[in-house]
Amino acid sequence: MARRWQRLALVLTVVASASLSAGCSVRPQSHPVVLPSQPGVARADRPGDGTPTPAPVTVFWLTGGRLVAAAKRVPGGGLGAAMTALATGPSPAERRAGLRSALPPGLSHLDVSVSRGVVTVTVPPGFDQLGPDRQVAAMAQLVYTAMAQPGLVGVALADDTGPVDIPVDGGRLVPGPVTRSDYRDVAPR
User: What is the pTM of this model?
Assistant: First the structure.
């Protein structure tokens, strides 16, 4: 409740300041001015030790042949953090709950880039060694996890030579990008 009153007091101060300064002119500065940090005011993006603040992301695991969303708090948040969380696999608690990943074991991260709303994932090592059904399930995890981020419209695969065809429902290979609608067979219920 005290925080609410502090916010209200801040808003009233800003409104009063704006009202009092109406009609006053302020000239532009010739150079930026660094403002000193105020004691007791924390930056929103990092805790006091300089590490990125954990932020929520959604990662998709498999259970019973279907995808299931799992909320995770990871440093920094965003697409890169979500894909790293996916690459490293379910936590011990998630594994005990029956969640698993179809991605190749031993990954620590996934290389991704974004252009015009399409996420391009570099084919993870060992992906070509997975059976067709597991490749489809792994791609579904990649697509659902990536597209949980705002503003993304599709997912493509690439290797060091260029775009790679993508396995979708039924084991077909298609040129990318693909979307969640290409993985209805494993979609969350």
Answer: 0.72
